[in-house]
Amino acid sequence: MVINEVYDPEYDNPNSPKYKDFVETFTSKMKEYYKSKVKNFKKVVVIRVSRGGALLKLLHNALAELKLASDLAVYKTGTAEEAVKVEHDVVLLLPNNDTSSATYEENLGSVQSATTELLTCTDCVYQVVKEPSVTSVDVNLSGFCERIFPDKDLAEFFEAKNISGKIQCITVCSAEHENQKTCSNNGRCTIYKGKGPFCECNDVITTWYLGQDCALPIQKTPFYVGLSVTLLCLLILIVAMTVYVMTNKQKQARARDNKKKLVNEWINDDFEWTKPNGATSSDYRNPSFTPEVGHHNPMYHPGTPPQWNGLSRGDMWLSDRPAANGAIGRRNRANLPLVHL
Fold first, then answer.
1. pLDDT tens, residue by residue, 108-120
2. Sign (positive/negative) of CA torsion 317, 318, 324, 327?
């Protein structure tokens, strides 16, 4: 907005006293003006003060020496003076509801009408020498949640979003968030200060959750029952295997002992050879043997052997060989040593 005032070169320096005085005066005057014209007006914020081009001044009957008409008005261009261009924002306080967009458009039109009226107003706060330009801006959502949540450790997890015309601060726990955090098994998403979103799971006393965000639940009671049954089955299997192995070893040991006992008995047993059925003395002759003079032909004597000291010769005749022709030997009860005749 270009106003009909002389631009002071000191306005080039925003830190100069004249610049600050001008801004303070402009803000105060326009605040009262906008307040009477705009319904939801809040404040004026000066953005920039610059040169606005040649300044036009209206002189009422200043050239009388030219004998002009008394009602003549002429414009004289000042060659050294320039107008002041003030760029400023009009801040509105709008209700945060579904009618905020319509209310904003209504107030924007009121600002446009108020600045245009300054072109023809003679007793207003300022006279505008050029058509003012009013532009709308998008809603600035930055810092919105910081103003609602003063605690920065908590506000950092919120972001402002326009939902159905209403600006809301939402988190990843909200369904409206683009990257919503989902908690499984009816878990609840909660924001914790300094930590952020966290899933609170249900029935944590009776349930274990092996996965993230309440995933992979395991009921403790069925787990303990299943574990107990498994351990019991394993114990029974171990006992059964142990009994089987021990029993098998005992059987093998008994089999070895019996075999060893039989072998020892067989080795230590004495046998008596008996005559085969129907055999005669001639059956035992050796036809290839020529006896010497004075010797008898060697033969086996099938008869009863003579007695020596109460023992028969057969009782003293022992052999460690099996009986011939299937004859069954008799164990020597006297356990006499083996004698070869």
1. 999 999 999 998 8
2. positive
Task: Give the dihedral sign, CA 167/168/172/176.
Answer: negative
Residue 162's beta-bridge partner residues? 167
Residues facing residue 8 across a β-bridge = none
Q: Is 314 exposed, middle or buried (0-12, 13-18, 19+ CB in 10 A)?
A: middle
For residues 247 and 255, the answer to whether their CB atoms sit within 8 Å is no
Residue with tokens 């245009």: 116
Identify whether the C-beta of residue 37 lies closer than 8 Å to the C-beta of residue 114: yes
CB 331 within 8 A of CB 323: no
- What is the token pair recorded at 72? 């003549």
At 255-292, the pLDDT tens digits run 888 888 888 877 776 545 555 555 555 555 555 555 55
Residue 319: DSSP 8-state? B
Residue ranges of E strands in 101-183:
159-163, 166-170
Pair 181, 192: CB distance under 8 Å: no
As given in the structure block, the two tokens for residue 24 are: 């303070």
**CA-based radius of gyration for the chain:** 65
Structure tokens at 328: 């069954």
DSSP secondary structure code for residue 77 in this structure:
E
Q: Tokens 């605040």 map to which residue?
A: 31
What count of residues does the chain have?
Answer: 341
C-alpha triplet 55, 56, 60: angle, nearest 5°: 140
- Closest C-alpha to 299, from 316, 289, 285, 311: 285
Angle between helices 17-37 and 100-117 (to 10 degrees): 120
Count of other CB atoms within 10 angstroms of residue 144: 19
pTM of the model as a whole: 0.51
DSSP strand pairing (217-219 vs 207-209): antiparallel
